[in-house]
Each structure stands twice: as C-alpha cells, then as structure tokens.
Amino acid sequence: MMSSMIFSTVRGIGSLLKSETCNSPSDEANGDKKVLSVAWNQDWSGFMVGTNQGFSVYTCNPINERISRDTHKSGFKIAEMLFLSNLFAIVGNGYNHSEYPPNKVFIWDDHSKSCFCELAFKSEVISVKLRRKHIVVVLRKTVYVYSFSDLKVHCLMETAVNPKGLCCVSQVEAKAVLACPGRHQGQVQVHDLRRNTVKYIKAHDSHIACMSLTLDGSLLATASTKGTLIRIFNALDGTLLQEFRRGIVRAEIYSVAISTNHKWVAVSSEKGTLHVFRLRPDILSSPKNINQASSLSLLRGILPKYSYENERSFAQFSLPVSTKFTVGFGPENTVLLVGIDGSYRRCRFDGEGGQMVELEHKQFFSLQQADNDTMVVNL
C-alpha cells in the first residue's frame, strides 16, 4: 500500500511563518475565471473556491471575499481550508505541465503566502480533508491520514473504488472520527483515529454516493447512487437511527449536511430541490429510537417495497437544475448553498416547514475583497 506514495517534501515545519516560498507563475492567467471546485470549511463559516487561475476564500453571514490568489496559470481542482485559518490544501488540475500537478497535495500558509510542504503520490489525488491534527488524502482506492505536526503517516486504509473521493472527518479532538467507503458495495468504514479501531456499516445495497459526519463525529448521514433514501447512523456503533425519503425517482445526490445542533439534515441533488429533514430530538440518547430503527430494519425485510414509512422532508427550496450545489447550515434555521456556477444562496425555513424563503443570492466573483485577513492557527 505504501507504494502509492512517492515522497513527502517538508519545508519549514518547525515554524509555519518561516516557510520557504514555492516558485509560482507570475503571469496573470488569460481568459475568464472559471470555478473548478467549491468546498465549505468545517463549520460553514466560510468556503474556498478553486479556479482555473488560482483560488479564493469567502466568509459568510454576510458573504465577503477574504482572499484571492489569481496568479497560477493552470489553477486548482481541489481547494480546502482549515476553519478560518491561514492554512489551505490545494491540488492542481495538471494543465500545461503545471508545477501543481494532480498527484500532489500542497499545504499553503497564506500568512507567508507560501507552501510549507507537499505530499506526492503515484496516482491522482481525488480529494483532501483537513482536521487541526490531520491531513487526509483520498486516492482512487486508498485513504492516507497524516499527522499535521510531523507529516508522518498516521494510518492508511483500503476502500472500494472511490471516484468521487468520498470521505468525511470529525473536528472535535475527543472524537477523532473518519468515515469513508468500505471495501464492498454499499459499505462504510468508520475509523476512530485515536483508538485505532474501525467499524464497518452496511449502509445501502447500491454504491455510496454521498456521506457526512457531524462535527463531533457522533452521527453519520449516507446516500447511495440510487439517491432515494438518506440514512442516519450512530457513527460509532453503526446503529441505523433514522431514514428519510428524498423521492422515489433515482437521482444523483450532490451534498448532505447535518446541522451542528443535531436537529436538521439538508440534501441537494440533481433534481433541483433542496430538502431539509427533521432529526428526532433524542436521536442519540433514546432507547426508544434505537428500537424503532431496529424494527424498521426488520420490517424492511418483511413488507413489500415502499410499504414501510420513510420520513419526508420538512422544508424545501427550488434550485437551478443545471447547477451542482453544496449545502451547509447557518444560524437560526438558515441553509447556505454554494454552486459550481459561482453563486451563493442563503435561505430560511420556519417552524411550519414547507417552502423556504431566500434571504441572499449573490455571484461571489463579483464581490469586493474585504480588508481583514484570515487568522493564524496554532496546531
């Protein structure tokens, strides 16, 4: 397995603020700026955009541009930020023999506007996830977890073919949890990174299409390539706690998010409808709910298809069908969406549910850059 990794180059690990500057193109990229990727940070307080010219960072509520680095000729297909800190993970799209190729992860310190390390692999990097203590690199059939402090491999895991780079991590240090596809169709593996233990969950019959963990790593949401059901599991013991029905027609699920207060689940799909589902108030603590989930699993094997109850969405919002949106949660029953078309939306639902109200809709490339910088984070 280690043969997938070529080498790791570390520059100035002892102090992030004394890192050497990577050689980067000085000429401005030609043509219009195009979005290659969008990704929320860990608590939806901001998001990062990879473009064909570089990357940009935005904060929310209200939306503002914080950083714009548009001096890279080939751009970045992956751009991930660590909360609202100065640390970013970037992966190039590989055009024109770029110095940022698609098989390398660069950790960028924007305080010094430089790369302080790079991780190189024999195959293309599909996705990257960040924790304060770890860097997670997802390849087609392997997930590497590095310690942020010394860039040594903390652990690695084999997965089924994972073309979307599915992986999610918790952010509470007391529960260092990572979830990714298992080795078999429809399976999820959940790793406790502190205890070095793993739990395998048979989540769906079809391949996994989307997954998300709560910040504390207690709840796991999954959807399959069929896209009709969203399932909520206890991440640590694998118990099925709740099941939601998005629809009866097959659809590609773009994004799923669980609110930090464990009350709501938001789902976006190719059908152009944002669905918000209500979690049971005592979903993690009530034996009654666990018994209900067990009964549901039993009934699923006895009753005809669709005759058992799946909970429908509490609130909905219509989106352009042609755009892929990634969802997050804001305060006071608000849902945030960033689109691959360069749009940002903020909408709200009330206690009655139903159709949501749009509060904000902007094209983020047209925003003025804010004066304040991101903060320096201590690892």
UniProtKB/TrEMBL annotation:
Chief location of this protein within or outside the cell: membrane
Its membrane topology: Peripheral membrane protein
Entry keyword Amino-acid biosynthesis: no
Stated family: Belongs to the WD repeat PROPPIN family.
InterPro entries cross-referenced by the UniProt entry: PROPPIN, WD40/YVTN_repeat-like_dom_sf, WD40_repeat_dom_sf, WD40_rpt
Name of the featured protein: Uncharacterized protein
Keyword Lyase among record annotations: no
Listed transmembrane segments: none
